[in-house]
Amino acid sequence: MEDYPRTEAELEKRFSSEEACRAYLFELRWPDGFVCPQCECRKAWTMKRDLFVCAKCRRQVSVTAGTIFQDSRLPLVMWFRAMWHVTSQKSGASALGLQRVLGLGSYQTAWSWLHKLRRAMVRPDRELLTGKVDVDETYVGGEKPGKRGRGAVGKALVVVAAQQDGDHIGRIRLVHVPDASGASLGDAIMQTIAPGSSVQTDDWKGYNGIEELGYRRKIVHHSPEVGENLLPNCHLVASLLKRWILGTHQGAVSAKHLSYYLDEFTFRFNRRTSQSRGKLFFRLVQQAVHMTPKPLSCITGPQPVGGG
Fold first, then answer.
1. Spatial contact of 237 and 172, defined as CB atoms under 8 Å apart
2. Collapsing DSSP states into helix, strand and coil, what is residue 147?
3. Cβ burial 111-131 (10 Å sphere, 16+ → b, else e)
4. What proportion of the chain, given as a percentage, has pLDDT over 70?
5. Which of 128, 130, 138, 239 falls 20 to 30 Å from 35 in CA-CA distance?
6. What pLDDT shows up at residue 305?
7. What is the average pLDDT across 114-128?
8. What is the tens place of the pLDDT at every residue in 149-195?
9. Given 3-state DSSP classes, what are the helix, strand and coil percentages for the chain, each rounded to the nearest 5?
10. Cα 203 from Cα 182, distance rounded (Å)
């Protein structure tokens, strides 16, 4: 049963203490009862400091150990507020905005929290796209134009895969690739689309080998009926992505972290019709508690300056 607060007021009332937050994480992490991460024993006793001791291997485990909350010095109450803020912003959240909402003294803390939460927005075992899928590429960032096959200076290339849902766009996937070669495009398609699906592309040579990978390719050519916009679903997603990066992050998205911003945009786009902010919060907490720890050293090189 999906259990989540419906409003911010309900969130504040329900998760006003560390005990309430830990109990919620316990239910999401171990819905059928405690399971030792080392020996999978289901029996344990509790100790002070919110630790569980496995009855078999004697390992001490906390509900936050092995999750993105591990080793956090700030209370879970603040994490819950952060997750509500991130999922309640229709256009996305910036590090500066999160810093202000939570009253954090450090911009770096807000920035690192957002990146940890972005990593939790994508399940490692998420389903591949199926059926009829449109695929195209787009450049994001930078100001200098460039040729498609050679790349564009200062820009990053993103593969857009948009599943057809009648006359509408269904689920999407976005992949940052190094170039528009057959190897890069083929890898991106295998990461996002189930074999046997119908993949619709333009006539770019980089897609020539996808049939050998197990896909049925349909090429859309220029014609009076089609016009220049060969793949309108992909073009719409690309346009919304660029607008989102520019509007929410002032265009300040580095290539190093681009994949995680793409994950956030995908999370939001695929749930764009949801009428419940609480359910989005639930999904993020649910995935965060099953996400392995991401220390700051794994996230950062040089720290960004600006909109986050």
1. yes
2. strand
3. bbbbbbbbbbbbeeeeebbee
4. 87
5. 128
6. 38
7. 89
8. 545 666 889 999 999 999 999 999 999 999 999 999 999 999 999 99
9. 40, 15, 45
10. 12
Domains present along the chain, CATH in parentheses: 8-124+278-299 (no CATH), 132-253 (3.30.420.10)
Query: Could you give the C-alpha distances from 84 to 78, 136, 292, in angstroms and in order?
Result: 10, 33, 20
Distances in Å between the Cα of 210 and the Cα atoms of 10, 97, 174, 238 are 49, 42, 18, 22
What is d(CA 271, CA 183) in angstroms, rounded to the nearest whole number? 31
Q: How far apart are CA 245 and CA 98, in angstroms?
A: 17
Q: Give the phi and the psi of residue 262 in degrees, each rounded to 5.
A: -65, -40
Task: Name the amino acid, one letter, at 26.
Answer: F
Q: First vs last Cα of the chain: how many Å apart?
A: 35
Angle (nearest 5°) at CA 76 between 285 and 50: 105
Q: Which residue has the tokens 């220029």?
A: 222
- What DSSP letter does each residue of 164-216 carry, written as one string? EETTEEEEEEEEEES-SSHHHHHHHHHHHB-TT-EEEE-S-GGGTTGGGGT-E
Structure token digits, residue 34: 């405690």
User: What value, to the nearest 5°, has the Cα angle with vertex 121 and ends 200 and 265?
Assistant: 50
* pLDDT for the residue 89: 85
Which pLDDT score, from 0 to 100, does residue 228 have?
A: 60
DSSP state of 217: E
Q: Is the distance from CB of 72 to CB of 64 less than 8 angstroms?
A: yes
CB 155 within 8 A of CB 144: yes
* pLDDT tier at 303, thresholds 50, 70, 90: very low
**Which amino acid makes up residue 282?**
F
Task: Name residue, tokens 């100001």.
Answer: 143
Share of the chain above pLDDT 90, in %: 69
